[in-house]
Each structure stands twice: as structure tokens, then as C-alpha cells.
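Table S5 (text form). Sequence records supplied for joint modeling of the three-component complex.
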Amino acid sequence: MAKVETKTSLAKGDLRDVLREMLLIRRFEEKVEERFRAGELPGFLHVAIGQEASAVGVCRALEDGDIIASTHRAHGHTLAKGTHPNELMAELYGKTEGCSHGYGGSMHLYDIERGNMGANAVIGGGLPHITGAALAFQMRGEPRVALAFFGDGATNIGTFHESLNLAQLWKVPAVFVLEDNKWAESTPESQHSPIRDLSDRAKAFGMKALKADGQDVEAVYKTARQALEYARAGKGPVFVHLDCVRLHGHYIGDPQVYRDKDEARKLAETRDPITLLRAKLELADDEFDELDAEVTEIVEASVEFAKNGTDPAPEDALKNIYA
Amino acid sequence: MPELSYREAVRDALATAMREDDSVFIMGEDIAEMGGSMGVTSGMLEEFGRERVRNTPISEMALAGAAIGAAMQGMRPIAEIMYEDFMTLAAEQVVNQAAKLRYMSGGQLTVPVVFRTQGGAGWSPGAQHAQQLEAWFVHIPGLKVVFASTPEDVRGLLWSAIYDDNPVVFFEHRTLYGIKGNVPEKIEPIPIGKARVHREGEDVTVIATGRLVHESLQAAEEAEKQGVSVEVVDPRTLQPLDEETLVASVKKTNRAVVAHEAVTRMGFGAEVASVLQYQAFDWLDAPVERVGAKFSPLPFAPVMEQFVVPHADDVLQAILRTVNR
Amino acid sequence: MATEVKLPRLGQGMESGTIVRWLKSEGEQVAKGEPLYELDTDKVTQEVEAEASGVLLKIAIPEGEVEVGRTIAFIGKEGESVAAVEAPAAPAPKAEPASNKLLQPEPERVSEPTTNGRIKASPLARRLARERGIDLSSIQGTGPDGRIVAQDVETPAPAASRAPAPVAAIGEVTSQPLTNIRKTIARRLTEAWTVPVFTLTVSADMTRANQLVASRRELDPDVRVTVTDLLTRVCAQALARHPEMNVQYTEDALLSFPNANVGIAVAAPQGLVVPVVHNAEQLTLVQIAQKRGDLVARARDSKLRAEDIDGGTFTISNLGMFDVDQFVAVLNPPQASILAVGVTREQVVPRDGELVVVPLMTMTLTCDHRAVDGATGAEFLKTVKAFLEFPGLAL
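The corresponding C-alpha cell record, covering 1043 residues in total, follows.
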């Protein structure tokens, strides 16, 4: 199940692909915001604008058979793990063609075939599942790793502490990726955590902890590879602390009255992962525009696909409750 | 036929499954050397080793959640929650996650996990170590809930729960662990969702669960002496409920008493009473009686505990009320 | 083309928002991303940015509550024309949250001393009573609070299997407890006896009636049409013609009925029952015969239902088969009249100066004088006689 070649860093050619992937997520999320404001999308939506490097960098580092569990801000992870934009958009529109067939929506995106154990609407809800999945891999002697994404807010909840404690105790092949964007909805980190370096929490369990700049996709990739190798070798779980930036509000429509507008604007200018990678690749404007047009077309096609999708029958609500 | 205690019967189901199937394993607090707080898993560490008999720290959410996570990957874990009261801690994972994963994923996921737990009053355990919370879990679509009351039933039903592809909350009653009963030589799986008629009768049907099955059988003996013929039925599975058997019995006797140890008010018995009232309306010669604990937390002092919790005499009085005595 | 600025959905569950004020005026230049207006939502007042650049051509809705999706302004090139926009409809008021009440647990079963006229009976008892044609009001309940339970309704074993009454020695008095049916009959007839009544007697020549019944039987041998059926048909038609007979007296008002629901007194094993042929004025003779046949059979099997005995407006009691010449029937309350029918007997009658033999049947009509006057009763009876003597009139 493991890939033959183990790449510790991304080649230049790969990086162009990576940029495309990140741009796809960006345009997808922008489109989701647009369609939500137009009143077409039911429910709660949380976009990952600004956190594309974290999603793509980590997922690129995974091998076949590895699984992920995500958060409520799941679109980026879901696309990065391989779900087609059509299936994701269809799910947001509540269509049967959606990856969860209309049963889950934005916060319950599942793509089991592609190793995505799902988004979770409960903060920290998926963390113990990752400990348990890693346990199963260990018991069965499989070279697979279970990886969880979560935010800084989640490092306060019971399941976080219980899951990391248990994972470390049993030395299961798990990786816990903290996308630390310094905001738990409207509460800044300084108001939700008495400590400043959240990696200390992992260290408190005796867990190996790595850090990287979450807006630098190459750095994310390298660090993720390191963590995955360590866990896969049976040395125990790893905590990966990514310094991220949430460029938009907590949910679509969030006016962020709690956030300093100037600071937010400055972050957008200096810490946008796409802008940063584009600069690093020294991409010409027309090259970038070409990529942009490509991904925009895919995104628009996904909206068309979704809009033409099939609404579930009302009675379908009573299916899939029991196996 | 061999005789096993209820406790041994539970162990037998767990151990037999683990012998035959590598994907089955158990996890819980103090289940290894100590053999569990109720001695259920005694000896299993020696037979199966630490890999498959896993002590966990005191973290019900991780315990329940990891079991769920392993089940999502194809294992068949049985998580022991030491006291039913601590199901409240595990509840986030049981209710928000296990019950709903299949549904939210549009049918992609199967979660074949069993949560075993025990509860019950008697011997003054106090308010936080005695609750009967089945009403919480029968209320959650996506969960199956089982509550067996005899060694034969608990063994056959635990086996079925392990091999059911759905999350099952499996209740045991503390005061029943020591009771002995005949069991078939080999484990015979008992279907989930099927009630059992313990005693046939003509005048009134008593539907009872857990410890109250035995109290009801006692009450039935007493009632017989007073000329009232009592039928005693144990649903065994609380969700899905065997409505057919229960309703047929009440249509035969025209009177019903529902008895459980849990608090009467808003309890599981209320649902059963409603089902009977609705489906057997024209057959009822008396209102459906309910027997259960009074509406209070469980007191510590024995005389108070005795007062709050239902006993055979409460069932007897309910029986007599239905026949206007 | 000017861009329509629509009120965006800024949160899950947001249906409308209130425009507080515009930050730009009509005719002003606007850049995409610039704050355009202030919006008050459920949660917060916030600035909403323009989604396009251009001139703010028109502010369609200057302030107030607007539903999501509505056009509130236009941005475009100077001089472009814009469509007119309707004023927003007042959005539906939000539902008030239910108030929380702390309920007291442990309800005691409240014992009600009065039932407001409602009979307390278990569902099973009610069903049994319905099936057997038993009136619950006649039963004494032995359940809690006087509730009637199944046992109270179960009739004693039928006569055949009842132990024979003890044979008394000469001079001794035997006593047999009253059945519920008998108690009911006794109570109702006592009630009826207190009503002021008058009776009217008439005899009818049954020649043509008998011929009609005979020929009907030939035509429809499966349906044994009887004189009672003809009487039912005739009385129904007569009631239709004399609606002032189809009434009932109550303390406050005289009730008038649109249909003739004719009851037929039947001697059933458990006692007298009066099953009803409803809307008899709309039924043909054959239909009446079929209905009557079914009702009588079920009465004899104690299988009448409530709907079989409810709603009657008139009763016929026929003792002709017992050779009774004539009798006076007691009213069947709350009905206002009852027709007692005797045997049809050949009698010698003078007609046009000659003696002829004619099959005569004597009928006596008893009427509730509070509801019906003598003349009304007499006219009705005259019609009945006419219909019997010339059945063509009633058919």
C-alpha cells in the first residue's frame, strides 16, 4: 500500500501542481461564499480561505491507505484528499450526487473510499476516532497512519486531551495536525488558552511535536512527511503544529466585528499562501491567469453539476439509519 | 444443560468471540489484571494478552471514541463503560458520533461497536453510581439498545450485539451478575428485537426489564395465590422493541403493567404504555400501570433507597389495581 | 447593464435584515469592496461592502426591514436606466418562543366525582357493549370510580345454558335477578309512561297490500318481503308527507327530523330491541326488506351495533303474528309516536249495501301530545291507511 518512492520534499514541477490545487480550493471556497450569499446553500458553512497550504501540504504527504478526519472547516481537506469538486458542491447543495448523498452537508463530508473519515460538527469529535483507527492499524500490523486536523480552539476540549493521551500511551500510528489560526470563532487564542505555545500541550503527554509555517506549503509538506514517517515506523504519534491564518470570518457572513480590520488586511497582504507560492515560483501573470481560468472553469462546472443534481426523495430521510 | 452465572455468561460471549475472531477485542477501565470492577473480564488478560484486553485511562470519551474509530476501520471492539452513570461522559461519542456516522455519510460507514455498561440500585451505591439511563439511548435513532435479565439471554444477546453491524448499547444489571441459570451447551445467538415470554397467564400482562423481570415473576406467584393469572414478558431488546409480542399478549389478557427499575416518569415504560394504549385500545379493560423508581436521585441510606426503588410488592399492587382489587 | 444590489444572506437562518443607513448617496462613485450601507441583522449591525464598482444609480430601499434576495440598489454607468422596485412586503413576524414552565412531577390520578353525563367505561367494555347492543347507561360499573368494566357488560349465559329456574314447592315465591337488558327496558318504559299521550285507532283493508306482498315475493323470491316491510315503507312515506309527525319533544325545543328512521320492534333473546331502518323514505320495498332481514337476524344473534339502534324517529310494533286483534303500544322515548299493528283477519263488512268479506288489519297510533296534536296524528294515520289500501299511492 505504501508508495515506492518516498519524497521528503516537493519538486519544482510538483509545486506548480500544488499551486493549482490550492487555487482550486480558493476559487471553490469563494464560489461557495458567493452562492451562499445568493441564498442557494442551506445550513452553516465555514470556508478555509487562507488555509489552503495546510490542507494541500499535509494531504500530499499522505500515502495510499492513510486516512484523515477533519473539522467543521472541511472543504479544503476534502478536496485535498481527492474528492471531486462536483461531489463536494453537490453535497453542499444537498443533492444525492453529493459525497454524503445529501445526508451530511458541509460539516459532515465523508469520502470513505478516498480515506476521508469525515468532517465533524462537534469540536474535537473526530479526534478519538483517529486514535481508534490508528489502534486498528497497529493491531492488524498495517503500515497505515491515521491523521487528524483540528484548530487551536479544539486543544481545550476533553476529547483532545483524552485522545492524545491514549494515542501516546498506546503509541499508535497517528498524526495530530493543529491548524493554529489563533481564533476559536470570535475568541482569540489569548482568551481561550492560558499558555502561548500550544505544542506544550502535546509535549505534556510526552508526544513528539513538530512545528511549521502553515502558510508555506513546502514547509508543511516537509514537516508532514517527517511526522508520517515517524508514526508509520511505529515510534508513536506525532503532533504537527502549523502556524496558519484564517483570512475570512468563522462562518460565511461573519462580519468579524471582533477582529482588527487593519490587522486582517495586513495578513491578507503578507500571509496569503497562494500569493506566497506564486511569488516563490516566480509565475508570470499570464501563467497564473491560465491556472486561474482552468480552476475557475472546474468550479463553475461543479455548480452546474450540483444545480442539475437530484434532490433526495423526502422518504430517503428514513434510510441509512441502521446497517 | 450447563449452568452459568450472568457474569460468567457475559464473559463466555466475549471470550468465545475473541477466540474465533481476531477483529474482536475489549477495552475499558480496569478490565485487565483486575478483571473489571464487576469481575466480568476476569481471566481474559491471561488468555488473550494485553493487545486485545486493553486497560484505558479514565477517559470515557476517548474510550468510546477510539472504539468507534476502530470499528469504523473494520474491527469489532467492545468498550466497557464501568458504570452506567459514566455513559453520560461517553454520550457525546455514542450519541453525536456512533449513532449518526452511517447516516451522515449517506450509508458509507458501518460502526459495529458495542458499549457494555452496568447499573442498578441495591447496597447503597449512591446517586452517581446507580442510574438506569436506558431512556436516554432508546431515544437516539441509529442506536440499538439491549437489556438482558438472565444468563442465557445475556450470553445469546451479547453475541448478537457483537456481530450486529450497528452500534449497540448493552446494559447489564449489577444485582444480576451473581444469579445462575441454565444455558445451552454452545452459544445460541438470540435475535436482537425479540421479546421473551417467561410465564404465561390470562388476566394481566406484566412487561418488565432487568432486575424487575425477577421481581415481576415473584409478584406473579403471589398474584396466582390470590386468583389472578399473570403473564410476564421481557422485551430483552429495548430498541428495536418487539411490539408485536407485547401487543398480542395484552390483547389476550386485556390488562398491562410495565415495570422497570428506572425512574417511572418519562421513562422507557412510558413509551411501552403508549404503544399498548394505541395498538390495543379496544382491548384494555384498565389503564396501563407503570412501576418504576420514584422521581428522585437515589438516596444513600438503605431505608430511603428501599423506598425509592421498585420491588416485587409494587408490581403486585399494580397487578391487583388492574383487576380492581 | 446596471448591477442589482441584492440583500445577501449573511448567516444560516437569516431571512431578512434592516437597512440602517446608506454610506453612499445616489450618484456617488462606489468601488468594489467599499462599505456601501449599514445592516442590522439578528446578531449585529455591520457594514456591507459593494460587490461591484460604478455609480450608485439608485437606492431602491433607503431603510427598513428587507427580505434576503431583494434588490435594494443599482450600481452601473452614469445615465443608465434602472427598473422600478416595489416596496418590500412586511416580513412575517417571528414566532414567539414558548415560555418555559417548570412542571411538577409525580401526578396523582385525580378521582372525579362527577362525570358531566359521560359514562365511565373501559375501552373493552365499550366495545363489548357496542357489539351486543347494550346501552351502557343501564349498567352499574364495579370498577374504580364506578367505571364499567368488561365483566359488568358480559351478559349472563344465554337461556339455553342457564341453569333451570329452581322448581318451587307449591306456595313458595321464586325470584330471578334482573338482567341488564331488562333493567334498561324497565327504566325506559317507566320514563315513557310519564309522557302525556293519546291514541288513535284505524282499520285498513289489506286486499291490495296482501296482493302486493305476494307478487313481490314471486318476483324476488330471495327477498322475503313481509307486511312489516310494507308497513315500514308506508309509514316512511307518510312521515315524509307529514313532516310535523317526524318530531321529538325536548324541554327547550321541538326537534324536527329530515329523514324517516323507522324502528321495528323485535323480540330478541335478551329482550325487546328496536333496530332502525335509516332513511327509509329513500328505500324501495325490496331494500327495506333486505335491511330488515339483516337487522332482525343480527338482533336474534345479539350482534346489533350502536348504529343499528340509534337515531330512530318512529317505531312499528307488530304483534299480528301472535293473533292479537289490537293493542296500544307504549312510546319508545324520545320518539313522539309508535304504531301498534294487530293481526289481519277476514271480517264481514257492509259495502255499498252488501256484505263483503275483507281482510282487515287494525292499527293503533300512540302519540306524545306534547309534540303532536290530535288532528296531526289523525291525518297521518289517514294517510297510512290510504297507502295500505292503495299501495300505488305510496310506491
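Note: Chain B has eleven helices and 14 strands.
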